[in-house]
Amino acid sequence: MRKPIIIIVCILAAIAMQAQTASDTKETKKKEKTVNISGSVYDSFTRGKLAAFITLMRPDSTVVDTVTCYVSDRGQWSWYSFKVPRKEAKYIVKASYEGYHDCYVDFEIGKIGRKSYFEIPQHQMKIHRNNGMDGGNLNELVVKGTRVQIAYRGDTIVYDAAAFNLPDGSMLDGLIRQMPGAEIKDNGDIYVNGKKIDNLLLNGKDFFKGDNKVMLENLPYFTVKNVQVYHKSTEKSELAGRDIEEKEYVMDVKLKREYARGYIANAEAGAGTEQRWMGRAFGLYYDDHTRMSAFANINNVNEDRKPGNDGEWKPADMPRGLLKTRQVGIDLDTEDKEKTFNNRFSSTLTWRDADNRTNTASENFASDGSIYRGSSSKTLSDNFQFQIQNQLSLRKLHLHSFTWLNYTDGTSISESTDSTFAATLTNRRYSLGSGRNRSININQNIYWSKQFESGDYISADFYGTYYSHNPAENFRLSRTDYPANGTHDLHNNYTDSHTSNYTYDIDFSYNFILPDDWEINSTVGYMQNQQSVTNGIYRLDMLDNERYENFGLLPSTRDSLDMALDVDNSHISTTMVRKYSGSIGLSKYNGKMSATLRLPVSRLTERMNYHHATLDTTAHRAYTAFEPYIRFRTYGKTQFNFRYNFSVSRPDFASLMPVSNNSDPLSIRINNPGIKNRKIHKSEGTVTFKNDSIGSSVYVGYDFLLTHNARGTRTTYNSATGAYTRMTDNVNGNWSGTFKTGWQRPIDRLKRLRFDVSGSVKYERSVDFDIAYDTDADVLSKVTNIYTRLNAKMAYRHEKLSAAIVSKLVMRNSTSNRDNFERINTYDYQYGGNAQYTIPGIDLTIATDINMFCRRGYSSPSMNTDDLVWNAQLTRSFLKGRLTAKLQAFDLLHRLSAVRYNINAQGRTETWYNCIPRYVMLTAAYKFTKKPDKKGR
């Protein structure tokens, strides 16, 4: 603790000396001190940024200085700046731009204190009615020449939507899947050049925040002007008027001007083979200060495949199970003319019915011989989710509020069989299950900040949450047979769990402003959390009544139910956690770089009242945590990013109670009171080089993770019954490091041919306990894994033709200190291509992709497979583009299998899932747009 404090003191002293030296030098030279004043200019209709000509004038209209507003294409961000004498003064700021009325803003510099800059109110310019942008038929405008798919403007990546060739009726996800360096995961997460996008925005604002799929699957591609990827100031930073925390990495979808005001409606319906169907509708209204949207979606498709793409999905990623989804949602964003008030509200309702069936064969590696298991299961579930989000910003009051509510209610029924064997069959089990779960989660965050005349500012941040999970009840009827001795075991369990907790956390911060955009950050905070858990397990088969050997029946009275309580495996606990925290840090944020050093210290105390048949106690624990954080990032054509953080993860307090759980006789869990805190060192860094003139980008980076006191599992296998006994314990020696790089650029002068390659090498050292037969597990299993990944793509586009060839490789090498470990050398590779072409005259678009997916090096011949997958799509529009018909065919060669294979250092698994990989679907989509008339503009 003393060394970091000494370092902090030295850094602060050096900064203070530097500031004093600079001040003395200026006084010596008798140079007039200045202060920066800056502002921005926007289109009042579209909120688009404008490169306006700015004139700074005195109150008598004499000109002081002029400058052109800088537009960086970073979302809604535009910027201009002047240096003026550091004294109180009044100014008039004039903005001029071709096709717009001149816009004037009065501005006054008041008391200055230590402030280094002042912000001028925004200019919101109104367009001339007859400037040529509102009149005429937009369809008469023909732009010739080659559009550039990707451009680098400073630290912003700009994808021109018009440069991509997509079939009519495509949605936003189809565009993003074609963008160089971009990738969409199954859950809707988006990655660009290997880095995850924090937020997906529409015209610079959140849109169903946290659920990217709503915009990806419902926003029509034809409305998009471009997609921009950049680092954006957070809501709290925008409220404070300066960057007070790290920027978010966002993807901002910009609408075309003609769709930035008016109505957009889009509906699609379709039916296919294998009883597949879908339907969806989307509506969007936009004006100067309001955005309203609604959507509805119903389908049983359960997949994200798009014919004509790169085949980012592979046989191992085929949809699992059958899923029927119904979802509706609304979104409302409104603000006042001066942008001092903004409210964003969204709500979704989702119903999901799932039918999941699996057959699994697995092998667990052990030094004394492998353990084999076979299982089959069927689960039917019905789930409902209701979600509300509301964000309120009051800029004049410097207040921001975020409210989130999530309600879920679901039921499920299941049936399964499984067996375990080594040399001979050890056990066989048949089970029935059902469950009912309901939960509600409410979160509230309120943030307030105020800047003083000195330039310093204070802030308060309140966070509160309430969570309830009630009921969480499950029935499970199981019969386990042991062929070796001819016995069996019958369990009819009923589990009734209730969980509730609340948390509130309040932090106060004071930021002391230093020269050159540096500031000292200090924070104190208090957090309190209380959680109550009731976990009741009842052995209904222990009641003296044969009727309770049937599934899903409960006694009619509470007293009768209590007689079946499994006291050895039930418990009640109440935990109170209090945390006192303080932090001091140093930071700098500006348009060129950001640097953050945080040194937080927290003192945490816990008290648990724990009630169990063998233990009734009040337990206490307390510890002090020091978790430093360092981050440095530069912006521009050459970007450097470095981050290091240290974190401490404590084990759940209940898991430290000296009790065991044998409610499942084949999987026994023993708590370990001696578990230590897990300590994690994590670091990452990247350097990115961009060349705007040729549109190329190169990045090199690394990731590093070191875990001290990692949690492993001591596992003992009972060779007589096939039961596993598990206990968590600490192990050391776990770490991993990754080197990654990527390069993309156009090949030809016209930028029609583009090359994209990326790769990574990961070294992973994994340490855990080896499975032991009939004795305590003390032997460590050390496994070294090396993963090599390589992706390459060559894409061509000219007018109505686009085509690409794609190749991907994943290699794995695993070695271990175990005597009977069989070295793993596997490689999965893919090669193929895709094409899309619109036939002139008939305007019929053909899209297709064909890829070979290969697996080699696996010990089981059934896992070494070759799958040639071919998909195709035909699209044609009617009624001047308002109606679009689309015919899609998936897996034309019927080569995809519903079987997945997985192998790692602990074992291998082969699993069959129910799904429909091959089908054909015909859909029809209708779009409607209405633009405001000239009077409305």
Write the layout of secondary structure elements.
Blueprint: H1 2-29, E1 34-39, E2 41-43, E3 53-57, E4 63-68, E5 70-74, E6 77-85, E7 89-96, E8 103-109, E9 117-119, E10 123-125, E11 150-153, E12 156-160, H2 172-178, E13 182-184, E14 190-192, E15 195-196, E16 199-202, E17 205-206, H3 212-218, E18 224-232, H4 235-240, E19 248-255, E20 262-272, E21 277-286, E22 290-299, E23 322-335, E24 341-364, E25 371-394, E26 399-421, E27 425-451, E28 457-482, E29 487-513, E30 518-539, H5 558-562, E31 571-589, E32 593-612, E33 615-626, E34 629-634, E35 638-649, E36 660-661, E37 667-670, E38 678-691, E39 696-708, E40 710-717, E41 724-731, E42 734-746, E43 753-769, E44 772-773, E45 780-798, E46 801-816, E47 824-839, E48 844-856, E49 866-878, E50 883-890, E51 899-903, E52 907-913, E53 919-930
Parallel strand pairs: 1-9, 2-10, 16-19, 37-41, 40-44
Antiparallel strand pairs: 1-6, 3-4, 3-7, 5-6, 7-8, 11-12, 12-18, 13-14, 14-15, 16-17, 18-19, 20-21, 20-53, 21-22, 22-23, 23-24, 24-25, 24-52, 25-26, 26-27, 27-28, 28-29, 29-30, 30-31, 31-32, 32-33, 32-34, 34-35, 35-38, 36-37, 38-39, 39-42, 40-41, 42-43, 43-45, 45-46, 46-47, 47-48, 48-49, 49-50, ...
